[in-house]
């Protein structure tokens, strides 16, 4: 009988264990830590690009210069007025789009006839870029708030509507039939069967719609000239103030991150019962 020594019994893949352990440790780091490290690497790369002359600093100033203007903006009342104008158009437009999309989505999604009737129309209108409506918005409303709202509502409406339609289509027909057999009317079935199934889809649509609404609000201000951060960015660019322009761009980025974080928090609270949210919280 041949005896196997302890050295021979060692599996060959043990030698690669340290590499896997290092990777596992990096992945196990908190998301906040990884996010800070990633942001730091991005800022470092941005700082080096103009310093090394890869891109002229007059076109891409380093972040060390941009941060100074960004912090200075926080002390100016004009900056906060521009932020208010942007957020006002964003909030009003998003609210109109969400209410309309939820109501229309529930009505269309609950009827097979309406789904088939409107499918081609929705697929035709949804891909139209909102910026293509800028000439129409200017003709109808000029430089008033309504022109901005037209773009914001149109862009974010489809994000929410499509998700609501997906949610209604995902309702278990057996559960719906059971509710109907127990005598629940249409509104009661929407409340107790359709709505809980649609809610996770709706929250996803809200997050997507909120981001798109901010993009279109700033775009309207840039192109049309509505008051807000977009208009301030356009004025800084036309005046050759490149670093202040980038500071305003960074401000819009921070607002976008804040909006996403707020809607993520709302989603976790509203969907605390949902398995996907529980798995995310336990991870």
Give an overview in words.
The chain is mainly alpha-helical. It has 13 helices and no strands. The chain starts with 5 loop residues before the first helix and ends with a helix. The radius of gyration is 26 Å and the shape is globular.
How is this fold's topology laid out?
Elements: H1 6-9, H2 17-28, H3 31-51, H4 63-73, H5 77-109, H6 112-125, H7 134-141, H8 145-169, H9 173-181, H10 186-223, H11 229-238, H12 242-270, H13 275-282
Helix pairs in contact: 4-12, 5-8, 5-10, 5-11, 7-8, 8-10, 9-10, 10-11, 10-12, 11-12
Low-pLDDT runs of 5+ residues are: 1-7, 14-19
Query: Distance between termini?
Result: 50 Å
Query: Which sheet architecture does the biggest sheet show?
Result: none
Envelope shape? globular
Mean pLDDT: 86
Radius of gyration: 26 Å
Question: If helices are DSSP runs of H or I spanning 4 or more residues, what is the number of helices?
Answer: 13
The fraction of residues assigned to DSSP E strands is under 5%
Key terms:
mainly alpha; 283 residues; single chain; 13 helices
Entry summary:
The chain contains 13 helices and no strands. By secondary structure, it is mainly α.
